[in-house]
Amino acid sequence: MFASSIRLASLPKGPSMARSFSYTSPARVAEVKSLGVIGAGQMGLGIALVAAQRAQVPVTLVDSSQASLDKGLKFADKLLEKDVAKQRITREAADAARGLLTPTIKIDDLSSVDFVIEAVPEIPDLKTKIFSSLAQIAPKHAILATNTSSISITKIAAATSTDPTDLQASSRVISTHFMNPVPIQKGVEIIRGLQTSQETMDTAIAFVERMGKVASVSADSPGFLANRILMPYLNEAVICLETGVGGREDIDNIMKTGTNVPMGPLVLADFIGLDTCLAIMNVLHQETGDSKYRPAGLLRRMVDAGWLGRKSGKGFYDY
Ligand code: NAD
């Protein structure tokens, strides 16, 4: 935290800051020749595809569900076809990127990758179990990154060993928190845990920059930067709906036409996934103990009903 604050203090001011500055010192950057992605949902699939297209590395895409893998790859084909049709990329480039994606349901297939990014649902026990397995399966030099939206990186890193003084694997754990949709949004939050080494940090930043992304460093604090700011805003929109301060369209329209955001908060919550929004609010609430982060009752009820937004066909809107 102190290191990044000191660096930030010396940054040039103004809008060109992100592009003109790199956090890394090249001497510390390890070479990444292959990637593993765990979870082929909306985030994992996007990360795998952009890594294949921009960083041009082979990607082993793991999901516990064959149906999710099939659905994800079908979606990748659709995105690539769209890019070709709009002449954003050539047919050869699309075929080359698609050829770099290897789907599998076996996590053991990550035994020779240089970098892993985990993007399974936001369930703490699920993530810690996966990192405990990764410490055994992945090579001893591999960077082990999580795409968590809110769970402590220090906690996830601690799951790699039962001995807290053993930093062999935990020093290689970091968060690369991509924004949704990954092919479009440039921002990636980089969060280090207490155990994370400087080389892990530098390598992760260099790799996301290779993917064409812009890194912002956040401390390992509940919600990090993006969701600490975004989620209370979305939650407040749900409270406004629930308590009758405004109707669905009024809430979305005033924010769209009044603050120049491309989507209103309820449409955005549907797009992110209401289960993901609730999970993040729960972490903010539990970790800080501050009642201002209490999830809206309506958000809980909608998740209870299975109305998760766009991905389930029903949320604040119907899809
Ligand atoms: P998702 O539900 O779309 O996808 C999760 C995928 O993980 C599914 O395909 C599921 O089959 C798979 N999975 C479940 N258990 C698994 C296991 N044990 N091994 C392998 N695969 C498994 O979720 P998502 O929206 O892609 O979110 C993934 C992560 O990214 C979460 O941590 C979330 O908080 C974070 N995130 C989400 C967003 C967003 O807007 N949705 C944005 C940034 C970060």
UniProtKB/TrEMBL annotation:
Write the record's keywords in alphabetical order, separated by commas.
NAD, Oxidoreductase
At the top level, the lineage of the source is: Eukaryota
Query: What region holds the 3-hydroxyacyl-CoA dehydrogenase C-terminal domain?
Result: 223-319
A GO biological process this protein is involved in?
fatty acid metabolic process
Task: Give the site residues for Important for catalytic activity.
Answer: H177
- Which SUPFAM superfamilies does this one have? 6-phosphogluconate dehydrogenase C-terminal domain-like, NAD(P)-binding Rossmann-fold domains
Pfam families cross-referenced by the UniProt entry: 3HCDH, 3HCDH_N
Pathway terms, separated by semicolons: Lipid metabolism; fatty acid beta-oxidation
Which InterPro entries does the entry mention? Answer: 3-OHacyl-CoA_DH (IPR022694), 3-OHacyl-CoA_DH_CS (IPR006180), 3-OHacyl-CoA_DH_NAD-bd (IPR006176), 3HC_DH_C (IPR006108), 6-PGluconate_DH-like_C_sf (IPR008927), 6PGD_dom2 (IPR013328), NAD(P)-bd_dom_sf (IPR036291)
Question: Could you tell me one molecular function GO term of this UniProt entry?
Answer: NAD+ binding
| Keyword Oxidoreductase applies | yes
Binding, NAD(+): G39, A40, G41, Q42, M43, G44, D63, E122, K127, S149, N180, K311
Where is each 3-hydroxyacyl-CoA dehydrogenase NAD binding domain found?
35-217
- PANTHER family given for it? 3-HYDROXYACYL-COA DEHYDROGENASE FAMILY PROTEIN, 3-HYDROXYBUTYRYL-COA DEHYDROGENASE
Similarity comment: family membership: Belongs to the 3-hydroxyacyl-CoA dehydrogenase family.
User: What is this protein identified as?
Assistant: 3-hydroxybutyryl-CoA dehydrogenase
